[in-house]
Amino acid sequence: MLPSAASRSKISSAKVKQMANTIKVKLVKGLIGTRESHRATVRGLGLRGINSVRELEDTPAVRGMINKVSYLVKVVS
Fold it and tell me: What is the pLDDT of residues 30-40, one digit of tens each?
């Protein structure tokens, strides 16, 4: 059974709302010589190598992680 037009519009608006609550983060510096806890934070953000980009949910926890390693990452729009 196909969804009605009303439910389709709800699905698409939910996707748009979800995309508005995301942040793109890019690793711009290498991790050699950094603290182990900072390396773990970068790994927790899902970033692997230089120039890797991840789209993450915009939550206070993620913002705190980004703030902790702000000298290593860049928020990409």
Answer: 999 999 999 99
What's at 7, amino acid-wise? S
Q: Which residues does 76 contact at the CB level (< 8 Å), separation at least 6?
A: 24, 25, 26, 53
The answer to whether the CB of 74 falls within 8 A of the CB of 21 is no
The whole-angstrom separation of Cα 7 and Cα 22 is 24
Residues constituting the chain: 77
- For the whole model, what pTM was predicted? 0.74
Residue ranges in 1-77 assigned as alpha helix (H): 5-20, 36-44, 60-68
